[in-house]
Amino acid sequence: MIYTFNGNESYAHAYMICRFGHCLLIDPNINYSEIESKLGDQILDGILLTHAHSDHTSLIHLFNVPIYVHSDDAALLFEDKYNGYSKDNPRPYVRKQLNIQTIEDQVKIPLADHEVVVFHTPGHTKGSVSFLYQKYIFTGDTLFKESVGRHDLYSGNLFDLKRSVLKLIDDLNDNIIIKPGHDDASTIRNERKNNPFYIKWKKQGKI
Known about the structure:
The chain is an alpha/beta fold. The protein has a single domain (2-204), classed as Metallo-beta-lactamase, Chain A (4-Layer Sandwich), CATH 3.60.15.10. It is built from five helices and 14 strands. The protein has helices at 32-39, 80-83, 158-171, 188-194, 196-204; strands spanning 2-5, 14-19, 22-26, 43-48, 66-70, 99-103, 108-111, 114-120, 129-133, 136-140, 143-144, 147-148, 177-180, 186-187. α3 packs across α5. It is globular. Keywords: Hydrolase, Metal-binding, Zinc. Its cofactor is Zn(2+). InterPro entries: MBL_Glyoxalase_II, Metallo-B-lactamas, RibonucZ/Hydroxyglut_hydro.
């Protein structure tokens, strides 16, 4: 079961995947009461972060579970100069509240009898990741419907973003459904045919 908690101009989408009474929460930042309602009496096994920007992380301290973040983005959770928190938007969590578990490329996070596979997809941030679960890929701010994420923020890199987008679209099955951090869902097939960034970068060749 996939639950989507739709974001807005200030917050990203959050997602929860559940199987046999166990759940994983992706980028919790909005709709806490709705998340709690959907969770019900199921067990939350952990939080998965696609990256450490404030519009993806503002509820992470409200759940007493492990928080999985790539090792290259773990420090960014607390670097308010770069992560989007500020005096007007103060960081709601402190380090001692969080059970941080760092992850790397191809790590497999169990969910009941299945698993979530980590794809390191840097470019938006150095530690950006995407999470593959069954026929879904949760891409954070790396890949959007017919677009891609920004690379001009702290630890972002255009060449890394190109490699990550090419990796996702070239390597994944056409029928994989893309669940991005913002805007509408898509499929790998649609992005292969219609994403102008992918088409341009593919013509340029591998980086």
